[in-house]
Write a structure and sequence with these properties.
Pfam families: HTH_18 (PF12833)
Distance between the termini: 65 Å
InterPro entries: HTH_AraC (IPR018060)
Number of domains: 2
Helix content: 55-70%
Structural class: mainly alpha
Order of helices and strands: HHHHHHH
Protein name: Helix-turn-helix domain-containing protein
Number of helices: 7
CATH topology of the largest domain: Arc Repressor Mutant, subunit A
Radius of gyration: 17 Å
CATH class of the largest domain: Mainly Alpha
CATH architecture of the largest domain: Orthogonal Bundle
Shape: elongated
Keywords: DNA-binding
Strand content: under 5%
Number of strands: 0
Largest sheet: none
């Protein structure tokens, strides 16, 4: 099947299949989750899956997964279970393989570091900006 010739409705249906596969089992939280794993989950051929994510989302597979992980991070920031976790443990729980990968992804896709995101979400002011 040539994805370049698919009707827009069919592309959207495949994208919905991808998102359903990712959300139903939270596959993006697996740090070793690969394009081949997603192809197996969705039944979409590997090269077609890659083309679809690139053309319709404008992202590489790794950036697409990082975007899902960043969303998860932002959704969980104020959860009670996360209140005592270190930033490193939070990002690992979101599926990031390393600190460097996480920081690069956040800066590229969210325009801020995870620590900046955390501070904004929790209303934390730096000591120099605090009103005494």
């Amino acid at each position: 099947m040539d994805f370049k010739k698919l009707a827009p409705e069919q592309k959207q249906a495949y994208l919905a299949d991808i998102e359903r596969a990712l959300t139903s089992r939270r596959l993006y939280l697996k740090s070793n989750f690969s394009l081949a794993d997603l192809a197996e989950e969705t039944g979409i051929k590997l090269h077609n899956l890659s083309y679809l994510i690139n053309s319709e989302r404008g992202l590489s597979f790794s950036d697409y997964m990082h975007l899902w992980r960043i969303r998860h991070f932002k959704e969980r920031l104020n959860d009670y279970e996360w209140k005592d976790l270190t930033l490193e443990k939070m990002t690992a729980a979101c599926g990031f393989k390393s600190r460097a990968t996480c920081w690069r992804a956040f800066i590229k896709l969210a325009g801020q570091t995870p620590s900046e995101c955390l501070k904004l979400a929790r209303g934390i002011q730096s000591r120099s900006n605090a009103n005494f």
